[in-house]
Task: structure prediction
Amino acid sequence: MSVIHLGTSGWSYKDWLGVFYPDLTKQADYLPFYAKKFDSVEVDSTFYAIPRKTTVQNWYDKTPDTFTFSLKVPQIITHEKRLNNCESEWNQFVQTAQLLKHKLGPIVLQFDYKFQFNEHFFLLNEFLKIYNFKDIKLCVEIRNKDWHNLDFYDLLRKHNVALVLNDLYYMPRIIELTSDFVYVRLLGNRKQIPDDFSHVRVKRDMDLDWWADWIHKFIEKELDVWVYSNNRYQGHAPATIAELQKRVAK
Result:
C-alpha cells in the first residue's frame, strides 16, 4: 500500500511559539512536539552544511519509529561545486544521513535558476552515472523552465530519480512522474510573505484542493508520496499542512 507523508520545511521557528508550539516550549522540545502532529519533516539546514553526527542521532532519538526526515543536499555540492569533484562531500553527507536508518526519507538536489539545462545537463548526467545511490530515494528540483524537456525526464527515469513537483510562482506547475515515489514542495512567493510566520497571510484553498486531488491520483498509482510546505506558501506552514491533511483524508 502507498504511504503519504505530509510535513513542513523545518521545525525550528520561534514565530510558531504560542501558535503551533505551546507557550514556553523550549527549543529542544520543538521536534518531539512537532512529531506528534506530523509524521515527516524536510530539513532545510542540511543545505547550508553537513550536520554533525550527534545532531542527526538526536533527531533520530527524539522522534517516533514511523517518523521520516527528508534532507536537502548541501549547497557546496549543488551550488558551489556544481556537482564537480564533490565525492568526499557527497560520501560524508550520505554516511551522516544514513544514521537516520529507516527514518531517512528522500534526499533532494535543489538547484537555483542559474543551473541551466544547456550548460549543466552533462554534469547532472555524469553525477547520476558515477555516484552510488543505493538505498537512497533521490530527487532533483530545478528552478529554470528550460529543464522541462524529454531528455531531462528520461535521464531521471533511467536512474529512478524523482522530479520535485514544486509549486513556485515563477515555475510552471508540471506533473511529471519519473520514479516510483512522488515528492512535492509547496514554496509560494517570497514577496507575498514578510518575515513573520505566525499566521496564514495568503489563502490558497483552490491550490490545496488541486494538490489533494493529485495526491489521490498518486495513491491510485500505488506511489509513496512526500509533501512539504514552507512558510512562504501561505505564511504559516503548519496550517498549510493541516489543511492539506483534511483534504487528503476526505
